[in-house]
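Hi there,

I know you've been waiting on this one. I reran it after we fixed the sequence typo, so this is the corrected version. Both the input and the resulting structure follow.
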Amino acid sequence: MELPVWFEVGSLVVLVLILVGDLLLILKRPHIPSTKESTLWVVFYVTLALIFAALLWLFAGGEFAGQFIAGWLTEYSLSIDNLFVFGLIMNQFAVPRRHQQEVLTVGILIALVLRGIFILLGATIIENFLPIFYVFGAFLAWTAWRQAFPGGDHEDEIKKESFVVRQLRRRIDISDHYDGARVRTVVGGKKIFTPMMIVFVAIGMTDLLFALDSIPAIFGITTIPFIVFTANIFALMGLRQLYFLLGGLLDRLKYLHYGIAFILAFIGVKLIFHAMHENELPFINGGRHIEWVPDISTWMSLGVILTSMVVATVASLIASSRERRAAPAAETPATPVEAADAVAQEKGTPPTVE
């Protein structure tokens, strides 16, 4: 069963109109969205994605709908990780909170453009060179390891300025203060760039790295460019509102990167299995297909992705709750007797007896 052309064209037109409307709303009314407003927008976009999945089921069958949901959830989990990094960048460069919506909007637009380019490249490569799945699978396995075991302080690594940002600082004049959301301002009669320029470049570099991770991941679930692209669009829609809705909760999702790492590792294995099943390389099994390799279904992938996200989120919230309960006890000052006992224990003398 194939998707009707009118459905593909109509869906893309509607999605572009929604994105443009969202962008115009930010440009005309920049503000810090309330929790209620953010919640309504996130619910709207999630509901829209589920309606789209239902329409896919209606017009193209359950397999297409399952591929979209699995791809959307995978890209959504990666986008939340991307959102966490956006927050670190904005904190690092002290972006005023009232202008963070504009920064997030630019970051999401850059992500859409980069992912669109990589999707076209990926689809072309896959069509002409199927063994690329071996490369994609190995890359995702390595990315999963890097995600789970970043080595050192992951937050400090993110805060290190990239080579491009350092070069910009050296080669162009940048003001010390922001001028709203403007990229250029006038200081002493001379036009120079504001720190917002550096923020946009840092966001763009981050988007590039995340696109390199996310596109092989989605192609591990489906090779249909339309589903790949729409899954990415729906994963990025509402991300700006989700940032303000989650707020400090992002810091509490301490195990999220383990869940994402497991998803990436699983998809990497699935890609390698698919490459082996469709093998065309002459030095592997004589260039013949490896029939005994299991073919992981879309619905199994969906189950693994959902379970990983739920387990990582619940485990993070439980750990965060325990830490908050333990914090007051640790901060409670010791009584005089307890303090005396502590000193006596250090000196090796008997404790105080009341």
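Quick highlight: Residues 298-331 form the longest helix (34 residues).

Best,
R. S.
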